[in-house]
Amino acid sequence: MAITIYHNPNCGTSRNTLAMIRASGEEPEVIEYLKTPPGRDRLIELIAATGLTVREILRRKGTPYEELGLDDPKWTDDQLVDFMVEHPILMNRPVVVTPLGTVLSRPSEKVLEVLPNAGKVGGFTKEDGEIVGKSGPNA
Length: 139
Hints:
The chain is an alpha+beta fold and 139 residues long. 29% of the residues lie in helices and 14% in strands. The protein is built from 5 helices and 6 strands. A 4-stranded mixed beta sheet has the order 2-1-3-4. It has a two-stranded antiparallel ribbon with strand order 5-6.
């Protein structure tokens, strides 16, 4: 089964998402998008597949978002995509692609919506101690 995660290993949400995918019994293709950014066309495909707007995919925290003035409504979607291509850190993460769909996995448990074996993840404990999903014999 083909599952891909656009991942940042320095991000707790991304690490939790990757761990949930693995807990489901799958080993995804892991693309560290800061090292190997998606090209412009692939980025546009990913955004469209999530059903989110370009602005909803933009990451603000820890990025040049403010200094570039990306909050200004003058920027078109095409221009914002160009900024993300130039500065991959502007792409919010993690984005997960599975046969069931594509999600921006924020919060990390959002990945369960598109994991074919999501039921295997029951009782997953995130890095911060929060338990996701059911635990117990019927999980």
